[in-house]
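User: Assemble these into one structure.

Assistant: Restating your components, then the assembled model:
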Amino acid sequence: SQQGEEDPQALSIQEGENATMNCSYKTSINNLQWYRQNSGRGLVHLILIRSNEREKHSGRLRVTLDTSKKSSSLLITASRAADTASYFCATDDRGGSEKLVFGKGTKLTVNP
Amino acid sequence: EAGVTQFPSHSVIEKGQTVTLRCDPISGHDNLYWYRRVMGKEIKFLLHFVKESKQDESGMPNNRFLAERTGGTYSTLKVQPAELEDSGVYFCASSQGILAGVADTQYFGPGTRLTVL
């Protein structure tokens, strides 16, 4: 079964620095999504990238997708303390199921 | 536009009791999903409704879990009887549907934190 795996598991940076999180998965996908979860809160959808796309931007977020390597990266530029959260990638199943498969997440801490 | 809402936000029950969680999807979204995250583990899929029909319930852990979506609007997830290992956060998500053969973005609710003592 496929599985999104984020790397690193935890990341601590200073405000203003860039944060890069990686995700790997195992099987073919239709799309890959990144979500953020602030402590004790729900999942907030950040960005969806389809399998025929290689890069996508949204504000300070940049997502890349390499289907040949079955990997994706999420870059947050000019990080802020408010970016402190857990970040998850989620993949669907190209076989037809619409369920999302999540990794364990990267816990990002941005120090002021 | 209102997002996905879930009720209650927290529930603390004793082992053997029954709990019912409710999810109201985004208006107009035919697809409704339940997921859960138990302590220290990944967020796992439970089941998927398309309108009132169960499309995929492969993630339901056992027959103590019953999900319904009568009328194709809100959904309930009942756990009866609850066990200690059912503790975790239960998320609901909704999406508009298939777009050009590809699943659309799933929008998540805030989750219900269930604690079974």
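The two ends of chain A are 40 Å apart (CA to CA).
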